[in-house]
Amino acid sequence: MYNEKVMDHFQNPRNAGEMLNPSGVGEVGNMKCGDIMKIFIKVEEGRIQDINFLTFGCGAAIASSSMLTELVKGKTLEEALNITNMDVAEKLGGLPDAKLHCSNLAADALHKAIENYQANNSPV
Ligand code: FES
Fold first, then answer.
1. Residue whose CA is closest, atom 4 of ligand 1?
2. Which domains does the chain have, with CATH numbers?
3. Which of 58, 64, 66 to mutate to test the pocket of ligand 1 (most atoms within 8 A of CB)?
4. pLDDT for 26-73, tens place per residue?
5. If pLDDT is split at 50, 70 and 90, which confidence band does 1 have?
6. What are the pocket residues of ligand 1 if the criterion is a CB atom closer than 6 Å to any ligand atom?
7. Torsion sign (Cα): 60, 62, 66, 71
8. I need a labelling partner for 12 at 20 to 30 A (CA). Which of 54, 65, 75, 122 fits?
9. Contact in structure between 105 and 69 (CB atoms under 8 Å)
10. Ligand 1 atom nearest 60 alpha carbon
């Protein structure tokens, strides 16, 4: 039911694992299925220099996390904030309708990680 690209990112996820000393962390959960995704970002000079993920979820959620990390690395925070759930699903070559909600986690977790970074670095 998944295309080749989704299977590749599911079976060989890029940038999986926890990051030590991240600049920002975002975590989201899907109420329906109970899956959880955590995104870690390292920000330097306004750009996301590194990004990792931990996902406890289905194949589509893992593939979405993996694709998101590839999309985001090297982008400015502004560019990263413009990445949508649909962008992730499109880059994966599409997801089955029943699995589209799984890709929502990826962009949402990224946006939360950026918000977390901004909150940690806003002038007091
Ligand atoms: Fe839960 Fe895919 S079924 S994120």
1. 102
2. 4-118 (3.90.1010.10)
3. 58
4. 999 988 889 999 999 999 999 999 999 999 999 999 999 999 999 999
5. confident
6. 30, 33, 35, 57-58, 60-61, 99, 102, 105
7. positive
8. 75
9. no
10. 2
